[in-house]
Amino acid sequence: MLTEIKRAAELIENSSYTTVLTGAGISAESGIPTFRGKDGLWNKYRPEELATPHAFRKNPSLVWEWYAWRMKLVFSREPNTAHFALAEMEKLGIVKKIITQNVDDLHERAGSKNVLHLHGKLRDIICSSSLCSYSTQNIDFIDSIPEKLPECPKCGSLLRPGVVWFGESLNPEVLTSAFGEAEKSDLILVVGTSAVVQPAASIPLITKRRGGKIIEINPNETPLSYESDLSIRNSAAILQEILLHLKK
Ligand code: APR
Ligand code: ZN
Q1: Contact 165 CB / ligand 1 (< 6 Å)
Q2: Which secondary-structure segment (H or E) carries 19?
Q3: Does the beta carbon of 112 lie inside 6 Å of ligand 1?
Q4: Average pLDDT by consecutive 10-residue portion of the chain (248 residues)?
Q5: Which residue puts its alpha carbon closest to atom 14 of ligand 1?
Q6: 229: which of 28, 166, 201, 213 fits an S-S bond (Cβ 3.0–4.6 Å)?
Q7: What is the pLDDT of residues 234-246, one digit of tens each?
Q8: How far apart are alpha carbons 39 and 36 in whole angstroms?
Q9: What's 50-94 look like in SS3?
């Protein structure tokens, strides 16, 4: 294990532009369930019933009930050592950008400033009407769900979580910026993602195709493992030990 930590620290020290792609696994040790794998959310709930525009149109109360539960869970949890290690690496000028698939705010609460949210943020509440630009971070309404669903003060439509649902496209500026970061990187750390959801899963390959390297940190193998220059079969917490080697 020590050799892998040393190897990772060496690759990071030799890199001039390191970025990070994170997934639900980095928040697992904060007590936030991942989506796939043995206790994954998608084992208990059907994403097509909860995380699609069709589901919201058909049964907004059910969708809001599920998101209210996730918001209360996420906002009651704290960043873990992995989040803090990445924030420290950003402070040291090592990590230039975190590209996350997560909709929680644990990277920001750990102190990371340069974070791109590919799939949106649970903190952002937006109007469900495509003709209306209203958005807020005020979630005072959360305790009256599902009896009363939040409505847009500007147009009266229902408000919805500001996250990207299955079947929706990602924010084009965010995606362009993420691809740009991957192109600039000569090293990308891929932490806690099953690497099965596109376009996120292609981001490390952009770095690879331009001669950059991939370090994967995941207790399980993923489709990205065989593309990785170093694949550490471990929890995201190992970032703290890699950080200690960087500081030496
Ligand atoms: N440290 C690191 N990785 C971990 C840990 C841990 N402590 N615990 C679990 N993992 C790994 C799992 O092995 C798995 O590969 O985290 C990964 C989580 O995979 P998913 O649950 O599929 O989450 P993610 O890859 O982020 O999903 C991508 O799918 O449903 C959509 O929008 C949702 O953003 C999400 C996207
Ligand atoms: Zn509106």
Answers
A1: no
A2: strand 18-22
A3: no
A4: 91 97 98 90 86 95 95 97 98 97 98 98 97 96 95 98 96 97 98 96 97 98 97 98 89
A5: 194
A6: 213
A7: 999 999 999 999 9
A8: 7
A9: HCCHHHHHHCHHHHHHHHHHHHHHHHHCCCCHHHHHHHHHHHCCC
